[in-house]
């Protein structure tokens, strides 16, 4: 993949402010509507999603971004080169007020494993240029894949430098595992101004997404590669579980519907993910040829309420056989995907800690009820499912906990010597929790010998999938409360084909 060069970005930025002689008659000319950047996502071997949202004044309190209450035609182009001399698809998509003037374009019939460039045009303004790519042919291993994954980006608690460093790693695919934005109002300790109240209405959520999308580092990360996104809790509110809010709230379902609508409007999701009231099916699969299948999970919308009142507990209720974190339908879908898979690597892109994480000395375990530790039977069914299906290599990707971890997944959590049946990689936060530190929880590592890494530094994980191995580089930043930090590799691991378990490099 060629780099999206500084020159390309400057061309795109200049074009965004340019006015061409294409203004439609009868309507006032818009100011530059591309303040939120562009994005692409959910690539297949012959198609993908192109996204933008029109917002000439992105931070208006009504969440409408300064757009008039009318439909607006948006012209788009997809080309094989960054100067758009070899345009392969073009068209017009209608941006509607009821969709926050967002557009989701789904060009199809594209060539597999190819790099493309895209842009939009409205009322004479041209958007920044984005780069994307399709997946390889379904039957092909293809070239090695560099995939970066991130989670937990609180706007007020730091600068999004990790997104820029991720973009500089030139990934072919980016996974965002949740907490893309946070619902909270501004706090005194914030280093950047969070605009708007705690998010509860559609206008609130639209405004909050717009605030995040104005960040240049996030815009850059979206522009260099296709993304696949799943939510966690803060896209709606902290630690919600299906229809149960964190605190009693008679209006929670309306809040959930508003959050879902804004999430769809602001993410490069296919039109099939458009919400239906309080429901939005987010779980889905992306196949990267025969090299990798990404099973993208939703562990919030269908889960049982957290056991024993949530928090860290010694809790018998967590072991109830009927408890589920995925819901029955999603679980069946995932287990069926394991049985049908012929991929070299099966990857679960999901939200909360999968491996056991005990933090109490003695015979009783103290576990997080918000993680898979609070849904023991659900985790056992999923683990047995991939083992019984003889999945070749299983890797679980996780966010949520604002710390980096690397762990072996064991067949029996009560026997540390039991067989390793998979690998879990946990990314730290982009900013949530502020700068972080170098303190390592030695007690946690001793009580959980399957955990091979723990770090509270901010950053992301860079992975490289090949036919023979998966390499994971834990990328860390020394600070995020001031901008411009450089990323270094904190630790690297390799997982060999057909040999689950972490090998330090």
From TrEMBL:
Q: Which residues form the PhoD-like phosphatase metallophosphatase domain?
A: 147-474
Gene3D superfamilies under this entry?
A: PhoD-like phosphatase, Purple acid phosphatase-like, N-terminal
Query: EC number(s)?
Result: 3.1.3.1
Q: List keywords of the entry alphabetically.
A: Hydrolase
Q: Which GO terms label this protein's molecular function in UniProt?
A: alkaline phosphatase activity
Q: Which residue ranges traverse the bilayer? A: none
This protein's source sits in the domain of life called Bacteria
Task: Cite the Phospholipase D N-terminal domain residue spans from the record.
Answer: 36-134
Query: Which Pfam families is this protein grouped with?
Result: PhoD, PhoD_N
Q: Entry's CDD domains? A: MPP_PhoD (cd07389)
PANTHER family assigned to the protein according to its UniProt record, in alphabetical order: ALKALINE PHOSPHATASE FAMILY PROTEIN (AFU_ORTHOLOGUE AFUA_5G03860), PHOSPHATASE, PUTATIVE (AFU_ORTHOLOGUE AFUA_6G08710)-RELATED
This chain belongs to the protein called: Alkaline phosphatase D
Gene name of the encoded protein: phoD5
